[in-house]
Amino acid sequence: MPATEVDTRETEIERINRWRAAELERAGYEPRGAAKVAARHDIDLHSAIELVQRGCPPEVAVAILL
To answer: Mean pLDDT of successive 10-residue segments in the chain (66 residues)?
Structure first.
């Protein structure tokens, strides 16, 4: 690759984080909180979604999870 070209391919981790964030946003999380939680792979996605589905406000869920 010539020095002037930039590799813009998305990594697998970036795709996973983007997908996790989209799922969290669909559940009700704000984009910023969703991105923070999505990047933490030690946090179970289903548990994070379930917190909001059971009535926990998304901003409180982010505070609990992080």
So the answer is: 66 95 98 98 97 97 97
